[in-house]
Amino acid sequence: MLLPVLLTSCEVFGLDFQDSYDFDYEIGMPSNKINMSAYDFIQSRTDIFTLLVEAIDYAGVSDEYKLSNMTYLLPTDEAFKNEDDGYFAHHQLSYIDELTGDTVTYAPITMTAYPQEQVREFLLYHIVKGPYTFTNLPAEPTWFETEAVADTALVNMYLLKDRNPNITFNNFEGHYLNEIKPRTSNLFNSDGSYMHVLDNWLDRPTREQLTGVE
Fold first, then answer.
1. Which residues have a Cβ under 8 Å from the Cβ of 21 and sit 6 or more positions away?
2. CB 194 within 8 A of CB 187
3. Helix (H, G, I), strand (E, B) or coil at 184
């Protein structure tokens, strides 16, 4: 009698059950393998990646999501739309009201509201050169190169020393949010790249933050 009550409670509190992974009987643990490219995986999950799909198409970078031996940091819709810390909230736009002459500031609802080059750099910044996951990331904060072209386009990643160790992203002083962890991590795709799903976006460091010199 206890099990139905627990299941009902989960539904009442709005909790979703995690989808089952394919079980790998040879190694005795759930498989983290996704038999598709990062681009196809994103396309297959438009329930959480609607805005990422839109941004990729708008910026024309679909081929960059089919590369081998990369680390893809995939922001969900929540990363864009969160009213407090979402990308839209931190990158508001403005226009002049023709009737009053006042400047009106607003948070857009689509990545197509921004210049294509801005969206392109945002996306490429979330693609780290090299395949990184729990088995090969250091335990100390380390900077890694991304596909973006700016000289400050480095992502900080490491395994946080905690009771529940997890990958931590851009956990440096001055970042808009600290100790960002993945919603889902360690997904290994058919191109030999790792994918980590984030409910947050990552902001580039400044030169001062990179060097530690003001």
1. 30, 31, 32
2. yes
3. strand
- Please report, to the nearest 10 degrees, the dihedral formed by the alpha carbons of residues 61, 64, 30, 178 taken in order: -70
Residue type for position 207: R
Q: Is 85 helix (H, G, I), strand (E, B) or coil?
A: coil
Distance CA(6)–CA(15), nearest Å, equals 11
Element (H, E) at 173: none
| CB burial of residue 143 (10 Å; 0-12, 13-18, 19+) | middle
Q: Is the Cα torsion angle 172, 179, 142, 40 positive or negative in sign?
A: negative
| DSSP structure class, residue 66 | G
Model confidence pLDDT, tens digit, residues 38-83: 999 999 999 999 999 999 999 999 999 999 999 999 999 999 999 9
pLDDT grade for 9, boundaries at 50, 70 and 90: very low
The answer to whether residues 156 and 141 touch, using CB atoms and an 8 Å cutoff, is yes
What is the maximal distance between C-alpha atoms in the chain? Answer: 69
C-alpha to C-alpha distances, 80 to 76, 117, 202, nearest whole angstrom: 7, 17, 11
CATH number for the 36-82+115-211 domain, one of 2.120.10.30, 2.40.320.10, 3.40.50.720, 2.30.180.10?
2.30.180.10
Q: Let me know: does 87 contact 79? Beta carbons within 8 Å.
A: yes
- Mapped onto helix, strand or coil, the DSSP state of residue 95 is strand
